[in-house]
Write a structure and sequence with these properties.
Layout (H helix, E strand, L loop, with lengths): L4 H36 L6 H17 L6 H27 L6 E7 L5 H12 L3 E7 L2 H9 L5 E8 L3 E2 L1 H8 L4 E9 L3 E4 L10 E4 L1 H6 L1 H5 L5 E4 L3 H11 L4 E5 L1 H6 L3 E5 L8 E8 L11 E9 L5 H11 L4 E9 L2 E11 L6 H12 L1 E11 L10
Parallel strand pairs: 1-2, 1-3, 7-8, 7-9
Antiparallel strand pairs: 3-4, 3-11, 5-11, 6-9, 6-10, 12-14, 12-15, 13-14
Helix pairs in contact: 1-3, 2-3, 11-12
The structure holds prephenic acid.
GO molecular function, one term: chorismate mutase activity
Keywords: Amino-acid biosynthesis, Aromatic amino acid biosynthesis, Coiled coil, Cytoplasm, Isomerase, Lyase, Multifunctional enzyme, Phenylalanine biosynthesis
EC number: 4.2.1.51, 5.4.99.5
Length: 386
Amino acid sequence: MSLDLIEIRQQITQIDRSLLKLLSERHRLAFDVVRSKELTQKPLRDVEREQQLLQELVQFAENENYQLEAQYITQIFQKIIEDSVLTQQVYLQKKLNAEREQNIHIAFLGKRGSYSHLASRNYATRYQEQLVELSCESFQQVFERVQNGEADYGVLPLENTTSGSINEVYDLLQHTDLFIVGELAYPIKHCVLVSEQEDLSKIDTLYSHPQVIQQCSQFIQTLDRVHIEYCESSSHAMQLVAGLNKPNIAALGNEDGGNLYGLRVLKSGIANQENNITRFIVVAKNAVAVSPQIHTKTLLLMKTTQQAGALVDALTVFKKHNVIMTKLESRPIYGKPWEEMFYLEIEANTNDPDTQQVLAELKEYSTFLKVLGCYPSEIVKPVEIS
Ligand SMILES: O=C(O)C(=O)C[C@]1(C(=O)O)C=C[C@@H](O)C=C1
């Protein structure tokens, strides 16, 4: 056994390349699986099979004395399975909605390097499409650019696991003719970005978007007398800080974005919650058809009467039809004090006759009901093993 680091690293690189080759072979099998399921019309996801597979792998590693922890094995394979599920979904969705362009214009908030930009990049990559970037100055402008045809899609944050709902986006959904056609989750990893400073205690001004400031509030409290400069996006903050190039100021943003502006990470892992994920929605002018084999979500906009129990009555429709509700949000109606609009996200496909029945019954309990979109759920919940 050699203890020469260069030699050991060469071995590691070789093994990693072999792993990549095997991952690519497994990735290609996802296409065979989905073609087979197209014939049988089986649902893409088979949680029982996933559980069985993970259990077998953990057992196999133990029998072979591989010295790998069960949690390590499950985490890796959950990720591999997620890729397989999403690959299969994209295959079916592209076939069903054949008119998708090769170059897609996506409108998003902020400049290059904003979280919305990074999420847009992921969306285009997932569909193996070339992204044409349209950066916008406000959420409203994202909606407008899709509406006027400049952009094929708009990518907008809807909720974050630390700071909750993004109310402005919910409010804009109340008045749009666009449809939600997709969703994606993007892990948010905030860090302190600087142009030259080495010492955190010398920073007295932080630039960032209000959401980012809120998500890092506990870390900010640990800093002495720091002044906050609110910016319209974290990428604006990064650009400003790079331009000012002063030792006492820093931006809160992400590492990839910071690289684009020549900033470096002074401290990472500063969000209140370690698992900080933003869920983005994708909006377009036309609704998409979603394959019945895919786990699907539908977002509804509903107004009930002002009578006592009106919302509870409406919700009993879901219970009666065994429909899972994944989100309930309410927002005031502009110009109508104390009146509320409800946003209901359910696990359902509007093409399914059962869902149509649910919508028909829901209508009886509401004074306004609109489907904001029916879209493939692109958040693959990992299975656990006991
Ligand atoms: O075996 C299948 O049915 C697959 O689709 C493959 C696979 C996997 O990647 O292992 C992916 C998704 C299913 O939920 C189960 C397993």
